[in-house]
């Protein structure tokens, strides 16, 4: 298995370097190969990670929990790299070849590097290396947000890098206090390894652990997009190139949530489950409420989807706060299903923006008439996001709500259901107008029926397949993996 | 007063250095010109390296000498150099600072410092009350580090230009380094170097984004960054 893990760390990095130095014509070949290969490598890890923790070279570690997040990132990285090939064919058509080559080289190198950092984060066996990996994701993705070279992109990138770096500063403080707590028991030369910290959690001093958990929720929460530190998120998601938006939303937010879960494991082993769960519940409900208020009246399709991401991260936090095994299983399934559904939604929105040449919802009309594949697929993606059966998100949210009722959190479960419904109304109201209202402007009516590129449809179809599999009948290997991760998270009623 | 003991050399030095760093942080909050802020940042970073050497000598941790040297090379030399070159390239030399940078304070210096004192007091007393300390971790220096974290956040908030905001972020990083040195001086060297390397990359990226911003907006002010709302 060590070969697979090392390959996961080497392949995307090698692809990034190759894209940066080789001729630009090779990048659209190298990148999808790297993306699909990484997804295959992640799939190959499922059986082993479902049965034991894999520890190698003292700093590499894959257990069931990290494998779940690797799966989400691996799938989305694979899908997005394929999608990018079609996306870039329609980008900057008015520019000369030299300019387009330079853009393509930077874009593909950055995309692979971004994928590499996100795949590396869950593999890191030490909280310090985890922090470094998350920080690298920030730096690389800030450059990818800025790559469009527009006023909006420059503004979004600056806000993103400043707010996220400041947040990660707090996460670094959390890491420092985790070291302080760990070194009291494990000695001076403790290297912040995750397993011994969790194993000795019960004996650690309480105050530093409590402090570390709060700082981690606030610090990593900045990158998750939890209220009130979510403010960079809608800007960055709307101004980044669409493939990057999909990765930001489906994979990056989840990777940061993974970091919070690691601190949660330590905190709940040390403080009991009350304090960590209450904290996550408060942040989760506030985020969900914010998203429910802001999905109404959004004019930009990508901003709309960004607020939906805030909603889903809130659902994850609430799900963990319920603590029942079935709710935690729902949370982990939700990570996977959200990656597929949100990736699909962003990729679908990207086809719309390429076809219509704008992100404004009011100008996107008659989608079903001009986009024979992407129109219906986008509708399916939004229904999936709104937890319509038989999508995987229906199953995961059902489990979370059931877990909430089962563990006696009636009020929180009721709030969850109400707010999810509100978001559903806001999301579908905008999207049905985009698809079913006939085009009114002359330029929109003049569009011919047809897809911009098959490369932009295939990964979305793959996403639908994943959503159906997760919703109808998750494979046995996967449910075994989730069950193992749930025990690691210390599920209790 | 038999219960009160004079602090040892190490603890006293750590406390004095932490207090000095907090004062420099206030200096940055008050300074109108970015180049003066960068000078104060250099002094603050130099203090961090001195503290690392004191701890290395006191607790016999040879790794920390190397860390002090690396940290000095990076924060006293490289980061200010990068920032100054950047300012020159966008047309701000030592003689003049264009509109949008000098005095980009949203508050008057006196109000900003008063707000900083409130923040610092809040952080200081909160952390003091937590009572986190060990043989290697003087509680006073840690509380001062917490105060510094909050003041550097204040600095980023009250300034309306990208260069000062970046300096504010780097001083936030100094505050965290101070906390890390006080609480986690035994952290393995490889991890500490990882953090420093990461800072270096962040500086380069901050610089690229500042240049991108300047080439679009023709100034370093963030007053125009208001298009993305809602």
Provide keyphrases for this structure.
heterodimer; A: 493 residues; mainly alpha; 3 domains; two-stranded antiparallel ribbon; 20 helices; 1% strand; globular; B: 230 residues; 7 helices
Strand content of chain A: under 5%
Total count of helical runs of at least 4 residues of chain B = 7
Low-confidence stretches of chain B: none
Tell how many strands the DSSP assignment of chain B holds. 0
> Element order, helices and strands of chain B?
HHHHHHH
- Low-pLDDT stretches of chain A are none
Strand arrangement, major sheet of chain A: 1-2
Reading the helices and strands of chain A in chain order gives HHEEHHHHHHHHHHHHHHHHHH
Domains of chain B, number: 1
Distance between the termini of chain B: 59 Å
Helix count, DSSP H or I runs of 4 or more residues of chain A: 20
How widely separated are the two ends of chain A? Answer: 35 Å
Estimate the helix proportion of chain B, in percent.
over 70%
- CA-atom Rg of chain B in angstroms: 18 Å
Question: How many individual β-strands of chain A?
Answer: 2
> In this structure, how is the largest beta sheet of chain B organized?
none
- Note the overall shape of chain B: globular
- Which oligomerization state do the chains in this entry correspond to? heterodimer
Largest pleated sheet of chain A: 2 strands, antiparallel
**In percent, how much strand structure appears in the residues of chain B?**
under 5%
Fold and architecture overview:
The complex is a heterodimer of chains A (493) and B (230). Chain A folds into 3 domains: 1-123; 132-269, no CATH class; 273-493, no CATH class. In chain A, 77% of the residues lie in helices and 1% in strands. Chain A contains 20 helices and 2 strands. In chain A, strands 1-2 form a two-stranded antiparallel ribbon. In chain A, β1 (54-56) and β2 form a beta hairpin. In chain A, α3 packs antiparallel against α19 (458-472), α8 (206-224) runs parallel beside α11 (274-294) and α9 packs antiparallel against α10 (242-271). Chain A is globular and about 70 Å long. Chain B has one domain (9-217). In chain B, 73% of the residues lie in helices and 0% in strands. Classes of the chains: A mainly alpha (493), B mainly alpha (230).
